[in-house]
Design brief:
Layout: E1 5-9, H1 12-29, E2 34-37, H2 44-55, E3 65-68, E4 70-72, H3 83-90, E5 102-103, H4 112-125, E6 131-134, E7 156-159, H5 162-168, E8 181-184, H6 187-191, E9 195-200, H7 206-214, E10 232-237
Parallel strand pairs: 1-10, 2-3, 2-6, 3-5, 6-9, 9-10
Antiparallel strand pairs: 4-8, 7-8
Helix pairs in contact: 1-2
The structure holds 2-amino-2-deoxy-6-O-phosphono-alpha-D-glucopyranose.
Length: 243
Amino acid sequence: MIHPRIIVVENPEEMGAVAADQFEALIQTKPAALLGLATGSTPIPLYRELVKRANEGKIDFSRIRSANLDEYKGLSPDHPQSYRKFMQDHLFDHVSIKPENTIVPDGLTEDVDAMCAAYEAQIEAWGGVDLQLLGIGHDGHIGFNEPDDHFPAMTHEVKLAEMTIEANKRFFDSVDDVPKAAFTMGIGTIMAARKVLLIVTGADKKEILRQTFWGPVTPQVPATILQFHPNVVLICDKAAYPF
Ligand code: GLP
């Protein structure tokens, strides 16, 4: 097993600053890097910090490309809870990244297989993901790769787990409004990234973080596959650190 490089920070704000350092260092050495981006509440302090540094002239997004992990099936790009809208609101609308250099799976696609294949092809055409940002779900999902009997390889459609629908209902008017399916990069897509940055904050993530790196590797806890990635940085706050 390959252990991640672990950085334990005081709180989510410090996580945001330390994670932003990882992005800043990459973008300085590779101005046209491909970033793999994530949504959820965990990355918000990071995006706030990236916007700040971009406005201060420390990070230049003008040549950066980005590919997001996932999107809800059936939500349009301007739906308030779509992940495309999340990215526009938290990052893209505030930095110099070019719209044509950002991709998020198309929640409204009518041809799932073609959309997923095109998504993989675009990532490859851009030279592969340099830095893949990940949060983690309470059941160990990364992107929307839910507990399963195998590790799915490429971008695909998934049925969301009950636990995920429950956890994400806070963003919707009611649980019935939460989409029941999504599109996500596969575990293979994620594992192909040159570097993975996992960010975890809050005491409610402590147990799943322990299982992720200090438990058996199993598709029932999808994040455990990261034990086999040769270049993982884990940034977690004290509340989430299992020891
Ligand atoms: C969603 C996203 C994941 C994210 C997870 C945890 O299900 N698809 O990418 O990591 O939620 O979200 P949070 O950071 O809000 O706990």
